[in-house]
Design brief:
The structure is a single chain. By secondary structure, the protein is of the alpha/beta class. The protein has a single domain, classed as L-arginine/glycine Amidinotransferase, Chain A. The protein contains nine helices and 21 strands. The strands form eight sheets. A three-stranded mixed sheet has the order 1-21-20. Strands 4-5-6 form a three-stranded mixed sheet, covered by helices on one side. It starts with a helix and ends in a 7-residue tail after the last helix.
Length: about 375
């Protein structure tokens, strides 16, 4: 009787596993088709087999999350900062990304290090503000605390690098709780907000001892996703009316894990996981960013593995001319692995319409604990 029960359980889970695989492949194709709908050249990247934790040879379970393999940036030439993974099972995923960055994109490879020692770094912990030479670099769970300083040293004075110290293990990458949007807006999950009896958010001073300090919504104890100093950095760059605050439910559904692109038609497009952001939040985005197209894509099969749309997409900033040269290479294969899209971005603007004190972000890379 025991063997019959075991066979029933094994058959059940094998069937569920097969169904989930089919769903994942179907949703991955939908994401690629969504990019192509807006004339964004994209193709699937190659995958490779490696030695798994059990000693067997097979496909690495997280290899679909392409963004973690590194970060592209453009100065006078395209550059690629490869990832250096914390978790053993992901070691080596960056190798093929480096090969393709050189072979397909002719990118310079730039490793980050400190005292000649490689630093832990994953692409999910870095986000660039669209159209700005401004990077936000998370740390606390996957990135080394020195990663932001090293990236700043690597990419030069023309870029601003803002370190963000993360607190909650659930939001282990920055792209799970923070999203710089077009035209100097941003979407953020800071934690759960305190409310009064009327349901309105309670406002407090960021520093109770300083009457001139920032005012912001009070958080429920131990729900903060980032340190006080990191929260201040974001709010020093974005006025309150330029921040869209999302709920824990929206963040848990990967609402901040979106992809932003301006295509050749100069249309701003935001790709989000379906059912992640509420209609109220979507309407806020549309009201603040006029003309933006928001494309919802079913991607929940990947949420079970802890990632979503942005995780599965390697973003590449490049010119319209460069995009045109790559259209011939835009693959039509349906291999189930990474997706890469080529971002035909507006020219990066080093001078923001907002006042940014660069000195503030070149020195204070380490934050005090929350």
């Amino acid at each position: 009787m025991g063997n019959i029960k075991k066979k029933y359980i094994d058959d059940y889970f094998n069937t569920k596993k097969a169904e989930l695989k089919r769903l994942a492949i179907e949703q991955h194709k939908k994401l690629v088709n969504a990019y192509r709908k807006y004339n964004i050249p994209c193709f699937t990247l190659l995958f490779e087999k490696g030695i798994l934790d059990n000693g067997m040879i097979g496909h690495k379970t997280d290899e679909v999350f392409a963004t973690d393999t590194g970060q592209f940036f453009f100065d006078t030439k395209l550059n690629f900062i490869p990832g250096n993974f914390v978790n053993k099972q992901r070691h080596g995923e960056e190798r093929l990304a480096i090969t393709q960055a050189i072979g397909i994109l002719q990118a310079n490879i730039k490793h980050i290090s400190s005292n000649n020692q490689p630093l832990k770094f994953e692409g999910g912990d870095i986000r660039q503000a669209p159209g700005r030479k401004l990077f936000f670099v998370g740390y606390g769970h996957r990135n080394d605390p020195s990663a932001a300083q090293s990236i700043h040293n690597l990419i030069g004075e023309q870029f601003i690098v803002v370190p963000i110290e993360l607190l909650q293990p659930r939001y282990y990458h920055l792209d799970c709780c923070f999203l710089p949007l077009f035209h100097d807006f941003a979407l953020v999950y800071e934690g759960e907000y305190q409310t009064n009896k009327q349901g309105d958010r309670i406002i407090e001073k960021s520093d109770p001892n300083d009457p001139t300090s920032l005012e912001w919504p009070a958080l429920i104890h131990e729900t903060a996703t980032m340190t006080i100093s990191s929260r201040k950095r974001i709010r020093q760059l974005y006025d309150a009316d330029h921040l869209i605050l999302i709920t824990e439910k929206e963040a848990a559904a990967f609402g901040a894990n979106a992809v932003l692109v301006t295509n050749e038609a100069r249309q701003d497009i935001m790709f989000i996981p379906a059912h992640s952001l509420t209609l109220s939040t979507i309407n806020q985005i549309k009201q603040k960013i006029h003309g933006i197209a928001i494309e919802e894509v079913e991607f929940d099969a990947f949420h079970r593995s802890g990632g979503s749309i942005r995780c599965a997409t390697q973003e590449v900033p490049c010119s319209t001319t460069f995009v045109a040269s790559l259209k011939k290479q835009s693959a039509t294969d349906d291999v189930f692995n990474h997706t890469l899209f080529f971002h035909s971005a507006k020219s990066a603007r080093s001078n923001s319409t907002r006042k940014i004190n660069i000195d503030d972000y070149q020195v204070h890379y380490r934050s005090k604990p929350y």
